[in-house]
Amino acid sequence: MNLDAFDLLATSILLVDAQGDIQYANGAAENLLGRSRKVLQGVACTSLVMESAELDASLKEACAGQFIDRRQLFNLRKGHETTPVFASIVALYEQPWPVMLELREIEQQLLAERNQQMYEQAGSSRELLRNLAHEVKNPLGGVRGAAQLLEAELDDRQLKEYTQVIISEADRLQSLVDRLLAPQRAPLHFAMLNIHELCEKAAMLVRAEFSQYGLDIRRDYDASIPDFPGDGARLMQVLLNVIRNAAQVLCEQEPPGGLITLRTRVARQQVLMDRRHRLVLVVSVIDNGPGVPPEIQERVFHPLVTGRASGTGLGLNLAQDFVQQHGGVVEFESEPGHTEFRILLPMERP
């Protein structure tokens, strides 16, 4: 058995001897349990969970060949806290270890499933919008051209005001169509980027835009984060869209203003878009506003969905699209007084 292959897996793998003691732990297990494989070697599996008797019974039955694969729920001990996990107990044959224990955090599994669902929904939405935008674009040009020809034939200045309305609205719709099609056009241009330089530039632009509202933007940076590959223009647009969205919500409330916190961290052993990454950059945009309305939380990344009367519903959709092009995802959690959008990007080129 090639043990190196286990380090490529996103789930935590423990190989256990007949006494129930750990003989091997992969990288994901080290991350989950917060201990190195050297420290874990020889540790009793039953000491890891609250339901030690249940796990002990399952391990003994697996060693006796009474089942091939059994799935159970356990509460993993993590210091003074516990973490719920799915456990698959697999009986091995003709191997140095009689049992393999696979652990997966329930929260992480649900998050991976949610991210995959968002990715599939975004793909369907993009396809629908691309088709719709192409259908609208040609007749829209005809409407604008006809209005211009009509305006040239009119002598009445008041009537020309109506044609100007048609032309200006056609231009506005053309701009909207171009924004819907823009993400599909240009390829990514990768370069090594400093996330804090991008954050600072985006914060400066948003602060200037909303200067009259007394908006407070604070930083909580991990200065040790190295440069990473990405398309600077698109990731800059992602940050602007997410930060500006938070600022607009805060400045439309009564009284206007509030706090936005930009936080950067590195997460380890994360699954993004069905791929496991050793290091993932996490950029959080946190605000203390009223939160995302519950009725649109499941659709907040869909195009043309917005909780603001003046919103277009394209900012977050475009941000999600650009991040997914990098192999990452944008996720969020929201309640009144605390909304956090997290931009997760792999730190290696997809």
List keywords for this structure.
350 residues, Beta-Lactamase, Heat Shock Protein 90, 5-stranded antiparallel β-sheet, 5-stranded mixed β-sheet, 8 helices, ATP-binding, nitrogen fixation, ATP binding
SSE string, helices as H and strands as E: EEHHHEEEHHEHEEHEEHEE
Count of alpha/pi helices: 8
Distance between the termini: 29 Å
Helix content: 40-55%
Rg on CA atoms, Å: 26 Å
> What low-confidence regions span 5 or more consecutive residues with pLDDT below 50?
none
> Taking strands numbered 1, 2, ... along the chain, how are they ordered across the largest sheet?
2-1-5-4-3
CATH superfamily of the largest domain: Histidine kinase-like ATPase, C-terminal domain
**Percent of residues in beta strands:** 25-35%
Overall geometry: elongated
Average pLDDT score: 84
Task: Tell how many strands the DSSP assignment holds.
Answer: 12
User: Which structural class best describes the helix and strand composition?
Assistant: alpha+beta
CATH architecture of the largest domain: 2-Layer Sandwich
In total, the number of domains comes to: 3
Biggest beta sheet attributes: 5 strands, antiparallel
CATH topology of the largest domain: Heat Shock Protein 90
* The first-level CATH class name of the largest domain: Alpha Beta
Domain PAS: 5-42
Catalytic activity: ATP + protein L-histidine = ADP + protein N-phospho-L-histidine
Enzyme class: transferase
Protein name: Sensory histidine kinase/phosphatase NtrB
